[in-house]
Amino acid sequence: MTTRSHGGVLATLIQATLAQASLDWKQVDGIAVSIGPGSFTGLRIGLSLAKGLAFAGGTPIAAVSTLEALAWAAAPSPGETVWAVLDARMREVYAAAFARTAAGLERLTPDEALAPDVLATRIESGAVVVGDAPDLYPQLGATGARILPFVTHHPRGGIVARLGAAILRGGGAADVGTLEPAYVRPSQAELARSR
Fold first, then answer.
1. Tens-place pLDDT, residues 64-107
2. Dihedral of CA 26/63/74/93: which sign?
3. In the structure, how many helices (H) and strands (E) does the chain have?
4. 144 and 72 in one domain?
5. In 10 A of CB 185, how many CB atoms?
6. What is the pTM of this model?
7. Which domain holds residue 161?
8. Is 19 inside any structural domain?
């Protein structure tokens, strides 16, 4: 089932996934949701559905950074630095850096929205860059960074689920009522209003 508008079919896809795993909602112990940064509309749709399901079922919910899930998709080796970089439109990228340690990924920078040229000066030689932005902004690999193709290295649902499960095991469930998407920058509508 493919569509450009996942909002209309997301609940059906979730039901189909549960059925394929021979599970029902009563067996779901927690919900993991990718909270961004990313498409403003996509984040609102996904988070709204996840919050509705969590609220209705009294199920704990875990908020997972999209850039952290993307960094894990790179499967970095210990000692490597990973830059997770997504196209933010309007000639900007969303980016965050992580270091692979023996314990997992250690965040080195917050999620940011910045110009590709600015980010390119921060990516050191030997780093791993993962995401869809390098296809649009080749300067992100100009320092000799290793670029991983987004088609094979993207933030999969299984990665989000694993990270969410770890958050919930650690007692980090989010408050369903106050959980918001991590937009990182204001939307076009907010910028227009402020002018």
1. 999 999 999 999 999 999 999 999 999 999 999 999 999 999 99
2. positive
3. 7, 8
4. yes
5. 17
6. 0.90
7. 6-11+26-65+154-194
8. no
